[in-house]
Design a protein that fits this description.
Blueprint: H1 3-17, H2 24-51, H3 56-59, H4 61-72, H5 82-98, H6 115-133, H7 135-146, H8 149-164, H9 172-196, H10 202-227, H11 245-249, H12 269-288, H13 293-313, H14 316-340, H15 345-367, H16 369-376, H17 382-401, H18 411-415, E1 417-418, E2 424-425, H19 429-462, H20 469-472, H21 474-487, H22 497-520
Helix pairs in contact: 5-6, 5-9, 6-9, 7-22, 8-9, 8-19, 9-22, 10-12, 10-13, 12-13, 12-14, 12-21, 14-15, 14-16, 14-19, 14-21, 15-16, 17-19, 19-21, 19-22, 21-22
């Protein structure tokens, strides 16, 4: 049966089920439905006025459900709004790094309109519209996600745990608000990345933009360090200031040393150092990759410059990230050369000597005093180390008491410590995830990162990129994800989590492209084996 006739026949069958032979129900519904709707709106408006702004998130739930129903009922579209979605994704990517998230449009009685919300919310809506209206979009996404099944499956499990742990929260409204925000900043970013980066050239442009923004923020940090204050402090218009902005604008100094710590556009120096550490594998990639000499020299100078900026943050996690980037990139680079160029003595020597080189590098962090202080800390960092130990000791029994989870945003109150400024914080993100989303959420969250590292590293090792610069980025992606995983053992803040989910989606997209290229060249993995 032709497609058009089949659709008409299906519609006729569906409509016949709702036909009323005597026509009584349509006449009754003409006055019954408007009456019931008017009564509901009257009651809803009364309670909204009574509870706003304290229960604004639960009261907006009916409107959100209505919006989802409208999106679901949209007609099929030949050209879904994917171009606009990709453009908003690019704006979100830039805004998440170069624009301070504590500077937002703050109008009386309205939620803060941050740059991430300004670009992220319509991007997420267009993602849902594309899924609803385009069978081609759904088919493409199904193929892309199917290339790396464990990543998206574990992500969906983690999202489920975000919602399932809400009833266990002591502040359900606050936890629900966080979970909804995460669906835009994390989940939607992942799925949009999976689609955006299947187009050739976009992945490399993303990596170039990431490195350029890191260098730009590093230059900004030099001026900040010279002035010993945030450059825009005292110059923010009133309508752009939020209630917590003054806390972020305060100079950051370690209590024991009183050394100023730069933070650029981030909320604190640790977030900035983490961002620079996650960028470092891509800098090394531009040094080691098949690029022009001028590009490689510029990348080398930039990498040294970023290490210096990390030192200005006075953050050990940044130095640890650099250490991971250098040591792992050396290993993967040598392994790839050994597999693809038989008889390469330099690469073979590095691979066989790597265990000794790695042990020597780790030993140097204990023996060489400046390295020991930068990596493991000294007397100035003793308080931080003791605080982390106390949090773990306090948190583990509470995880075992409720292995399901206590709800989003509740970890600080369960096992956090209070700083001099009165802020309750918790440092170990493994502990945060286990406390808030339970053991199953812990397995899902860190499992999807491990799965992405596996897909990226195996694809890079066993499938030749053959001049495809996008797919060559699987090496720095795997290393950056490993650095993130390690850093989370001592740092729990979430400023760079949108970047993490971009990288997860990027791995899935590039792994899909790698499999398609292998199939096209007749080098696909034999059935029954996993590549």
């Amino acid at each position: 049966m032709p497609e058009k006739n089949r659709k008409d026949s299906d519609e006729a069958i569906v409509l016949r089920l709702y036909a009323d032979a005597d026509g009584r129900w349509p006449r009754r519904l003409r006055w019954l439905l408007p009456t019931l709707l008017g009564i509901f709106c009257l009651i809803y408006g009364f309670f909204f006025a009574l509870t706003a702004p304290f229960l604004i998130v639960p009261m907006l739930a009916p409107l959100a459900i209505l919006a989802l129903l409208i999106i679901w009922a949209l007609p099929y579209a030949v050209n879904p709004p994917t171009r606009t979605m990709a453009a908003l994704f690019g704006c979100f990517f830039v805004a998440s790094i170069v624009w301070p998230n504590y500077i937002a449009i703050a109008l009386p009685g309205l939620p803060w309109i941050t740059m991430l919300r300004l670009f992220g919310t319509p991007m997420a809506i267009l993602l849902l519209v594309s899924v609803s209206t385009s069978s081609h979009f759904r088919q493409t996404m199904n193929q892309v996600l199917g290339s790396s099944p464990y990543v998206w499956m574990l992500l969906c499990l983690f999202v489920a745990m975000e919602f399932l742990t809400l009833p266990f929260s002591k502040d359900v409204s606050a936890s629900l608000n966080r979970v909804i925000v995460f669906q835009t900043y994390w989940t939607a970013i992942f799925f949009v990345s999976c689609y955006v980066f299947i187009k050739p050239g976009r992945a490399e442009r993303w990596a170039i933009a990431l490195c350029l923004m890191a260098v730009a923020l590093g230059i900004l940090a030099l001026f900040e360090f010279a002035d010993k204050k945030i450059l825009w402090a005292g110059h923010i218009p009133g309508f752009l200031k939020v209630e917590d902005s003054d806390r972020y604008l305060k100079p950051a100094m370690r209590a024991a040393t009183r050394i100023y710590r730069v933070k650029a556009t981030f909320g604190n120096p640790l977030n900035f150092a983490e961002f620079l550490a996650l960028t470092m594998p891509f800098m090394i990639h531009f040094i080691m990759g098949r690029y022009r000499v001028l590009v490689r020299v510029a990348a080398a100078v930039s990498a040294v410059f970023l290490v210096y900026v990390i030192l200005l943050t006075d953050s050990r996690l940044g130095i640890v990230g650099v250490f991971i980037s250098v040591t792992l990139y050396l290993l993967l680079w040598a392994l790839i050369l050994v597999r693809r160029t038989r008889g390469n003595l330099i690469a073979g020597g590095i691979v066989f000597a790597y265990p000794a080189l790695f042990i020597a590098a780790v030993a140097a962090t204990f023996v060489v005093r400046p390295l020991r202080v930068k990596v493991w800390g000294g007397g100035a960092q003793a308080a931080s180390n003791a605080s982390r130990d106390a949090q773990i000791t306090s948190g583990i029994p509470k995880i075992l008491a409720n292995p399901i989870g206590h709800g989003s945003g509740q970890a600080g109150g369960l096992a956090g410590t209070t700083s001099v400024s009165g802020q309750v914080s918790i440092d170990n993100y493994y502990l945060v995830i286990a406390l808030e989303y339970g053991l199953l959420g812990f397995f899902a969250y860190f499992g999807m990162i491990i799965a992405a590292v596996y897909y990226a590293s195996t694809s890079a090792l066993f499938r030749d990129a053959k001049g495809d610069r996008d797919r060559a980025l699987l090496v720095p992606l795997a290393i950056s994800l490993v650095a993130f995983f390690v850093i989370k053992s001592v740092f729990s803040q979430q400023d760079n989590h949108s970047l993490l989910f971009m990288m997860l989606g990027l791995v899935v997209a590039l792994n899909y492209r790698s499999k398609v290229a292998a199939l096209a060249s007749g080098l696909a993995t034999p059935p029954g084996k996993t590549a």
